[in-house]
Every structure is written in C-alpha cells, then in structure tokens.
Amino acid sequence: MHAPSPQEVVAGLLQDERFRSACARRDMGAVFRLLNHRGVSTRRLAAVVEVTQGRLYDYMNGKSRVEKLAIFEQIADALHIPGHLLGLARRTWEPRAELADSNVPPPDGDDLDTVGTFRDADRRAGGGRLYQAVVRHLSDHVARRLVDSASGPRAFAAAAAFTEMAGWMAHDSGRDDLAERHFVRALPLARMSGDVPLTAGIAASSSHLALQAGDPAQAVHWAQTGLDTAGRGPRVPSLMARLRAMEARALAAVGRTDAAERSLEQSREALSAPRQAEHSWTSPFDAASLASESALAFSDMGKHDEALQAARLAIDLRADGRARSLALSRLALVNIHIRRADLDAAVDAGAELLRTSPDLGSVRFLKQLADVRNDLACHRCYGPVEEFLVRLDESTRQRSVLLADIVRPREPGRPL
Predict the structure, then answer these.
(1) What digits encode the pLDDT tens for the residues 296-313?
(2) How far apart are CA 122 and CA 129, in angstroms?
(3) Cα-atom radius of gyration of the chain, to the nearest Å?
C-alpha cells in the first residue's frame, strides 16, 4: 500500500477539531505536527510546501510562526487546505459553491426582527445573559433550515449571522475561546450564503477578537482579509468604515503609526460617503463607533491628546439605549487619563464610570474594571485615588454578585 500523500492526509483531517482549531489560530506548526503524526515525513512536508527542513522544524517546534499572507496561501495550495479554514479567499482549486455567484435574496423578515430584538437587548444590558438565548434560537429555529433545499442561501446567511452574534455574546461573557469557535464556524456559513458583506463583517469581528487576545498581527490579517472580501461585493460604507477602523487599531498596536492614521482617515471617508447600499446583517457602525475605536487607536499610538478628544466625542454621541457602549467609552477615557498620568482626571472620569449602568451584564466590562484597578493600585498613596479604589472595589463586588451566574470560576489566587 502506498503512503498517503499530504493532501490525502489533510482531506482526512478536515473534520478533525484539532486540525480546524489549528487552522483557525493559523498555527501552521500544529498543522505540520498533525500531518507528521499521521505518517507524512518532515522531508516530504518540506518539499511539498517548498520550505527548508530547518524552517519546517522551527515552525513545528514553535521557534517561529508563519506570518506572511503569501506563505499561508502557498501552504494552503500545496496541502489543499480550504481557504476559509485559514481565513483566506476561496482557492482556485476549490470547487465553487453554486450559491456563491448567485444574487443573494433578502433575508427573512422574522430573522431580521429577531436579530433586532437581540441587538437592542444587548445594547441596553450587555450580552452576558443573552448567549444561551441566541444559541437556543440558532439551534431550534435556524439550524434545521440548513438541510431544507427550499431555504437556499437565506438559511446559510441567517445561520452565519446568528452564529456570529453568539460569538459576540460569548465574548461579552468573558469566553473568548468560545467566541473564536463561533466566528470560525460563522465564516464558511457566510461564504456558502454568497453574502459578501456578511462574510467581511465576520472577518471584522475576528479582528476585534484577535486584538482582545493580544495578537495584533492576527488582527491586521483579519481586517485586511475583510477589506479584500468586501471589495468583491456591493459597497456598504458603514462596513468599510468598520473594517478600516479595525485595521487602524491593529496597525497602531503593532507600532505602524503612519499606516494606522491613514486607515483612520479612510474610515472617516467611508463613513461620510453617500449610502450606496445598506445591508441587513452587518453590525451597525456609526460616528460614535468610529470615535470609540479612534480613541483606542490613538492611545496605542501614544497620541493622548487625540485619544482624549475622540473618547469625549464617543461619550457625547452615545444614545441613552447604548449602555455597554457608553460604559466602554467612559472606561477608555479613564485609561487615557491614566496613561497621561493625570490622576485627578482619571478619578473624576472613574466616578462617572461607576455611575454608568450598575446592572450591566458584561463580564468583559467587569474584567476591564479590574484592569483599571491594577493600573491605579500603584498610586493608592494619593488620597483621591485611594478613595476611588474603595468605591471601585465596592462597585466591582456588587457587579460580581449580579453576574455570579455567568462569571467563570476562577483559579485560586487569580484575580478576575
């Protein structure tokens, strides 16, 4: 019996959760190890993907990682890894889904009403307690339609949108590992629907999550993947603005200040463009959203005056019904004052923050409050800071009690 080719081994791994997870993380070292464990020699692997054995060993041992888009594409094409598993465009050798080139029919009105209901509740109270409701709706009302040939692309678009939404709810619950799995699952569903803006929007969500996980290089990749995808579909200005804003934040985080500022400018231009098309599934992105993302980007660039101005604008623009967005904008303002070493301003902004949405159901927000506490703890010898920390501890305790049913158990001695 002949030894299986690397492509045959990959074909047998496409439904393996470890393989799919490694691809989603773009951990090519883990991918190569899985193939090697299934009998593909390192010499053959190196030859197929056209790298030296020494470089292959570095990838497999974790001494280096694949970073360049061209190398990911080279590996995907050599091993026949479907593009969507690595966040790439459909490869030329992949069979084209029949739905991809068709005109996508408008989404079902009931689906849109449900999305709107979940979004409104999320804005008011946070997504912590909505996660199970979204997953249940996905399971009970959406998933079964995927096997109904009469449903067509609408079913795949709805499944992608609700799966992405579940990812955001998991993120707000402090479960970023779970959020990543939802985003990974949402992407191929969106591709199958043929809905280009929806696919690009999911890439934007993955960029945000990568930033939260401290992987700005991956965040750059996802933002640019989203931009490439969006360029192949109808122009949705708010979506382009969101993708450019995410690109700016990621570029700022890796120290590419000039490029980040250009991306912010492009985001502003996109948001001010005439509305050529609207899209039902993509997440809303408005001037307040751009101001909020700009504040974070400028802060990472060390441009604290610009960050302060953007954070204040975000707060001014937030509507009353956007409780979590307002809370996160106030949180950004506190952090900017801390970075500026303006302790009095940080304490004043912190007092406003604590008065914001005391019943907000967001574990993510609770964790960021803990980060504020850690940043201020070294200044507690200053009276106003000490007084604020006492109030912050009490507020955190009260919020923790309200979120006790969704906060994950902590390891002994580990802070929230």
Answers:
(1) 999 999 999 999 999 999
(2) 9
(3) 23
